[in-house]
Amino acid sequence: MSFNKLPAEQGIKNPGTEEQDVNPPMLPASRPLPVHKTWGENMGWKSFLVLIFCAAITVPARPQSATESQTQSSVCTLADSNQMTVRFTPLPANARIDMGKGKIWSPGDTPMYLFSEAASSLGGSDVPVGAYSMYLIPNGRKWTLIVNKDVTAGDKYDEKQDVVRAEMSGEQLLDAHAFSIVFVRPAPKQCSLQIIYGKLALSADFNEK
Question: What's the pLDDT at 42?
Answer without folding.
Answer: 46
